[in-house]
Design goal:
alpha/beta, Rossmann fold, Alpha-Beta Plaits, TIM Barrel, eight-stranded mixed barrel, five-stranded parallel β-sheet, about 20% strand, elongated, binds ligand C2E, binds magnesium ion
């Protein structure tokens, strides 16, 4: 088998023989012949020449025309053509070259010239073929990679759901095509980081897949469902026409999470926050729609786990307020503007101040006193609460140490601890440090936690509570009854006292159902050997009612509002006196 195919196009068959006779046999060629341009053109595909020797002067289709025709064919445009001509006029040679010929040989053909030109053209031809093959492979690879990349961009590898880009593309399409109304729902799993750190990457990835499958099984075919971020999913629905039906849909989605996910040997409960927006007008662009759902999500998250919000335009204002508040807090922290106030917790039997609850205060230079209910949630969202909480704790312990030195040695101090602080890995070591520095008796320090701390991460909460208890630190469950109403599980948590929220005492004179709950909670405390403190006592009748129920401790404006540290020394004896006087009047 010959390696190289050379086609000779010449009306004179003798010229074919001349070429054959003169060509160097080491070229290992196969020579083909065509008597005219038409014959050559029709034989190209079967011969597949590597080189063409083309006579310029032919009857019918001329060499120049033949050359042009061959070069106009896509697959033959790169074939080298050597023109064989008896003419030496420069003008004709120029015509040949501009018709696409690569070179020329003059007749009568000289053997050295023929072999030199043929060999050099073949060399170029093979180099070109190699380049072509390389390019083709390169193109294949690029195409493969582009498909892979497109798949990665548009399909989430873990869940095989469409990605964030898919939803953006689809959203743009629906807005442009006015397929309205549409609802965009962002679904963000709560505290996935905690799950990941407790169960590891493999289990948490399996959980992500299980979540996606549970959601997918619930959706309609026309709904687009994507994984938009690590623990976030996006739903684009077009069957929602009103806010009410959107709320219904959201609640149905939330109900899907009532049951745990069985991942291997674990049963994992999961909640999620949902932000949604309902779009009826085509005037919005993709980014605005996504922004609206994210804004709603941000507010839902700020309200705590398992919440949802539907976008309304005033939400932008509330986010702006939050951002403004955030920077004002940063500034106030820098300028040491915060203060600690103290409110007594009183022994209802003796009227003595048993403990002082430390409550943070922000005396704002322009706005006056800002309530902690305003700045604490913001600090919790930004994480500032961790250092702030420690600052309050340090201040409160220093205050107790001072009071101890002044002779108030049976007093305790109570400090609120946020759920976020429970996630802080250095919590225990920093508390140890404060105890060491202030030299207070750890059993005179009480830390108030809320039910949410215990519910969000019970395993971590129990272990930290046990660590604190092993240091003799007291634990109070604050705002008891307002959260998950956890009478059923309370015995599992080693707390020393329950602080019953003031909503249960508010209407005690009206004998509402809350009063019976209050009775039950006080009884429960007694049975479990846990002290009960009732918050928010404002009137003598409330106090009387609590004394009748045998409640041991109370806190409220009746005894004192929270006061600055400078007034503690006046407060301590006066609460006692007021109590003794009033108790003797009521008797
Ligand atoms: P809390 O820990 O349940 O504190 C009791 C709240 O009830 C205080 O509100 C107190 O001023 C108020 N209060 C006490 N007695 C009465 C009463 O008789 N009537 C009425 N209407 N209210 C009464 P405050 O100081 O505004 O604090 C609100 C919440 O902010 C606190 O609730 C606590 O959850 C949080 N907080 C305050 N300081 C801190 C802190 O340093 N760290 C953390 N994490 N949270 C804090
Ligand atoms: Mg408290
Ligand atoms: Mg409370």
């Amino acid at each position: 088998m010959k390696d190289v195919s050379i086609l000779v196009i010449d009306d004179e068959p003798n010229n074919y023989d001349v070429v054959d006779a003169l060509l160097d046999k080491s070229i290992n060629y196969q020579l083909y012949y065509a008597a005219n341009g038409e014959a050559a053109l029709s034989s190209l595909d079967s011969i597949k020449p590597d080189l063409i020797l083309l006579d310029i002067m032919m009857p019918g289709m001329s060499g120049i025309e033949t050359c042009k025709k061959i070069k106009s064919l896509r697959i033959w445009k790169n074939i080298p053509i050597i023109i064989v001509t008896a003419l030496t006029e420069k003008q004709n040679l120029t015509l040949c070259l501009s018709a696409g010929a690569s070179d020329y040989i003059c007749k009568p053909i000289n053997s050295i010239e023929l072999n030199a030109r043929v060999k050099s053209m073949l060399r170029i031809r093979f180099q070109y073929q190699q380049l072509e093959a390389f390019n083709a492979r390169l193109e294949e690879i690029v195409e493969e990679r582009t498909t892979q990349l497109a798949k990665r961009i548009y399909i989430d590898e873990l869940t095989q759901l469409p990605s964030q880009f898919s939803i953006q593309r689809e959203l743009a399409h629906r807005l442009n095509s006015k397929i309205l109304p549409l609802a965009l729902i962002i679904f963000d799993c709560d505290q996935f980081k905690r799950i990941e750190s407790s169960f590891g990457k493999i289990i948490s990835n399996k959980l992500r897949v299980a979540i996606s499958e549970r959601l997918k099984s619930y959706l309609n075919q026309s709904d687009l469902f994507s994984r938009s971020a690590e623990d976030e999913f996006c739903l684009l629905l077009n069957s929602i026409h009103s806010k009410n039906s959107l709320i219904k849909k959201i609640q149905e989605i939330q109900n899907l999470f009532e049951h745990p996910f069985n991942i291997g040997e674990f049963k994992i409960f999961m909640t999620a926050c949902i932000g949604a927006t309902l779009i009826k007008s085509p005037d919005l662009n993709t980014n605005t729609v996504l922004q609206q759902a994210s804004t709603a999500m941000y507010l839902a998250k700020s309200k705590g786990i398992g919440n949802y919000e539907i976008f309304e335009s005033q939400m932008y204002q509330s986010i702006l307020n939050r951002v403004t508040l955030e920077s004002a807090i940063q500034k106030a922290l820098k300028h040491n503007e915060f203060a600690v106030y103290y409110q007594p917790i009183v022994d209802l039997n003796t009227g003595k101040v048993d403990c002082l609850e430390a409550l943070a205060r922000w005396p704002h230079p322009k706005r006056g006193m800002i309530s902690p209910s305003e700045f604490i949630p913001c600090m919790e969202m930004t994480g500032l609460i961790i250092s702030f909480g420690m600052l309050i704790l340090r201040n409160a312990c220093q205050q107790l140490s001072l009071l101890n030195k002044q002779g108030w040695d049976s007093l305790s101090i109570s400090v609120n601890l946020s759920a976020k602080q429970f996630e802080y890995p250095n919590l225990l070591s920093e508390i140890d440090d404060i105890l060491l520095q202030t030299q207070i008796n750890p059993s005179c320090l009480s830390l108030e936690i809320t039910e949410s701390v215990v519910m969000e991460d019970p395993i971590n909460a129990i272990s930290i509570i046990q660590e604190l208890r092993s240091r003799q630190i007291q634990i109070s469950l604050d705002d008891f009854g307002t959260g998950y109403s956890s009478l059923a599980y309370i015995h599992r948590f080693p707390v020393n006292s329950l602080k019953i929220d003031r909503t249960f005492i508010e209407n005690v004179e009206l004998h509402t159902s809350e009063c019976y709950v209050l009775d039950t909670m006080i009884e429960l405390g007694k049975k479990l050997g846990i002290s009960v403190i009732v918050e928010g006592i404002e009137s003598e009748s409330q106090l009387e009612y609590l004394c009748k129920l045998g409640c041991k401790y109370g806190q409220g404006y009746l005894f004192s509002k929270p006061i600055p540290s400078s007034e503690i020394e006046i407060l301590l004896p006066s609460v006692n006196t007021h109590y003794v006087e009033n108790q003797s009047i009521s008797k």
